[in-house]
């Protein structure tokens, strides 16, 4: 099962153009639309223009954790260079306070992908695995058992 | 969909700041002309955005106001004398004298599970900004 799962994952990466075609929502900043543990499906096709209202997943330079928020403002030049501002639906203020020091806008390079679809709850498994190592070992152990038992 | 607006620009040293008040009368329908809330529509994220071009930027879009509508809420909007929720700053001085600022109402459909479409409502309103800055109006 391991190699076919990997192939599907790589295939998804190619089709969606995103390095992370699926992400788990980690915070409540987009409630009531998304909750911690929801799974988001992303695309990141360069041809898709960034427009207000879209839900983008972005990374702030130097930080690992991607953030899922909505585009509030865009200013795009004739040549396609764009700078934009984001805000979580459940936050009172926009994200400028989250950006790097001196950074006022996000750019295309900060974008991991655009949220196109979602499934609730499923991602809670990865959050539990992260927060409770014993749970992670139990899951890995069970997976290992499963593979052993079903080896052909 | 009908919007009435009154607007003016405040003087700022670096960027134009626009002030818009508006009314919104709208029925939010789905593609089949039924009211939008059905078994798989959990909520709508509605937003009123202004779109315009300036010397500095070929395309600008600014969300002025937004609202979350949950299934069970009334899909008919009847809002009057609304002020923008967010500051309408331009990236420069492109609002002064801009005759081509268009306001549109759009919404993001959030299902219980599935695709997240963005829909733009039919009907938009053009908001011409005056050629001079307003120094006396209070907002």
Automatic annotation (TrEMBL), chain A:
Its EC number is 3.4.21.89. InterPro entries: LexA/Signal_pep-like_sf, Pept_S26A_signal_pept_1_CS, Pept_S26A_signal_pept_1_Ser-AS, Peptidase_S24_S26A/B/C, Peptidase_S26, Peptidase_S26B. Pfam families: Peptidase_S24 (PF00717). It catalyses: Cleavage of hydrophobic, N-terminal signal or leader sequences from secreted and periplasmic proteins. It is a single-pass type II membrane protein. It is found in: Endoplasmic reticulum membrane. One of its GO terms (molecular function) is serine-type endopeptidase activity. SUPFAM superfamilies: LexA/Signal peptidase (SSF51306). One of its GO terms (cellular component) is signal peptidase complex. Gene3D superfamilies: Umud Fragment, subunit A. Keywords: Endoplasmic reticulum, Hydrolase, Membrane, Protease, Signal-anchor, Transmembrane, Transmembrane helix. It comes from the Eukaryota. Residues 10-99 form the Peptidase S24/S26A/S26B/S26C domain. GO terms for biological process: signal peptide processing. The keyword Ligase does not apply. Catalytic component of the signal peptidase complex (SPC) which catalyzes the cleavage of N-terminal signal sequences from nascent proteins as they are translocated into the lumen of the endoplasmic reticulum. Specifically cleaves N-terminal signal peptides that contain a hydrophobic alpha-helix (h-region) shorter than 18-20 amino acids. NCBIfam families: sigpep_I_arch. Belongs to the peptidase S26B family. Component of the signal peptidase complex paralog A (SPC-A) composed of a catalytic subunit SEC11A and three accessory subunits SPCS1, SPCS2 and SPCS3. Within the complex, interacts with SPCS2 and SPCS3. The complex induces a local thinning of the ER membrane which is used to measure the length of the signal peptide (SP) h-region of protein substrates. This ensures the selectivity of the complex towards h-regions shorter than 18-20 amino acids. This is Signal peptidase complex catalytic subunit SEC11. It comes from Ciconia maguari. The lineage of its organism: Eukaryota, Metazoa, Chordata, Craniata, Vertebrata. The gene is Sec11a.
Automatic annotation (TrEMBL), chain B:
InterPro entries: SPC3. It is a single-pass type II membrane protein. Signal peptide: none annotated. Keywords: Endoplasmic reticulum, Membrane, Signal-anchor, Transmembrane, Transmembrane helix. The keyword Secreted does not apply. It is found in: Endoplasmic reticulum membrane. Pfam families: SPC22. The keyword Metal-binding does not apply. GO terms for cellular component: signal peptidase complex. One of its GO terms (biological process) is signal peptide processing. Belongs to the SPCS3 family. PANTHER family: MICROSOMAL SIGNAL PEPTIDASE 23 KD SUBUNIT SPC22/23, SIGNAL PEPTIDASE COMPLEX SUBUNIT 3. Essential component of the signal peptidase complex (SPC) which catalyzes the cleavage of N-terminal signal sequences from nascent proteins as they are translocated into the lumen of the endoplasmic reticulum. Essential for the SPC catalytic activity, possibly by stabilizing and positioning the active center of the complex close to the lumenal surface. This is Signal peptidase complex subunit 3. It comes from Ciconia maguari. The lineage of its organism: Eukaryota, Metazoa, Chordata, Craniata, Vertebrata.
